[in-house]
Amino acid sequence: MPVIFLDTNLEKNSDNDRGLTRYLYGGDAAYRLAQEIILGIGGVRMLRKLGYTNIKKYHMNEGHASLLAMELLKESKVNVEWDFQRVKNACVFTTHTPVSAGHDHFSCGLVEHLLGESFPVEIIEMLGGNDRLDMTLLALNLSNYVNGVAKRHGEISREMFPGYSIDSITNGIHSYTWISNSFKWLFNKYIPGWTLDSFTLRYSLGIPKEEIWEAHVESKKLLCDYVNKETNIGMNHDVFTIGCARRATHYKRIDLVFSDVERLRNIATQVGKIQFIFAGKAHPNDWPGKESIKRIFSVLNQLKEHIKIVYLGNYDMELAQRLTAGVDLWLNTPQKPLEASGTSGMKAAHNGIPSLSVLDGWWLEGHIEGVTGWSLGAKSVESGNDQREAQEIYDKLENIILPLYYKEREKWIDVMRFSIAFNASFFNTQRMVQQYVLNAYLH
Fold first, then answer.
1. Do residues 249 and 283 make contact, with C-beta atoms less than 8 angstroms apart?
2. Is the C or the N end of the chain the one with fewer CB within 10 Å?
3. What is the pTM of this model?
């Protein structure tokens, strides 16, 4: 599949225009709208220049690209008639954001200033809102199929946009990319053909437990050796290792596990040793996110005599692959209901790593208590309670997870096998794309 990049940094462009694709998040509303004009309108015109004239479906991810639909509407105009239905039949829209503030909107004055007379303001107001251009409403009004990225997210989206038909297709991750080399070797041995059919990973229940453990130990040693090389912290291959890596923003609550430092210290000294590996970048302007990282560094020094904690820099895809394959438990603590889907826990599950996670996003569908991992908080959509959920982390580590890992290794490996068989076999891109084809593209 061709991947085409749009870039304004060309000599024939003005200095101002050349910088419009320089930053993913940056500038004011005018800068942001200019980027979305390039993506939506420029994207269609770029496709036409490259000879893609017979495209059956256009798939817009989030509202950033929804001006694409306006460009299609302009193309389909016959005399004075706007062919709304033709455009709707060609457009698929996936929304990713479960909070209103995450949906872009621009004043009609700014839209008119940047687009000029390209589109009549009354058409934009009719499709995108009365007093402003709401990019999500524009996409909703010009798409025949709309979906959220998890079942719960679909429910929340229908509440946010009543009157619209919004389906759900839960995200998945690319199995071959995220499975470690040791598990690839194991799956090649016991599940031939798994690379062509991710659903066959359910047969991992038949793989001998000792070989599952050996594959995990190999990945864990690679991770610990990498961390020790980078930080000289002295991570131990035999110590229970908890991983947490994601964009560091306030609602992700990456520091929730350190709400009660003394209790965590007692668990590590009296129940079983623990070590933590964190990674993830904060947006340059996200000060609460930066404070979360600073909090972890503060706790790191408080606990260094009893718990090894490291925060790795330069978080990228390669580091994410090491982490999701090499830890023993994946920790995910977002504030409900702000996790539209999440995918890091899926990546861990492909390597037999169970999750301890808030019941939100994909985990509502992948969680079976004590089988594929453990839950935090209730299933209800109401926001979680920081103090209560932190105590639940400690309770489950102390009374269930650590005793299982250190004293009942056979049962722990059962959880690892179930994580692969139930979650990796379903939460993958093969299943996801099949659902898009059947539910959206052929719709």
1. yes
2. N
3. 0.93
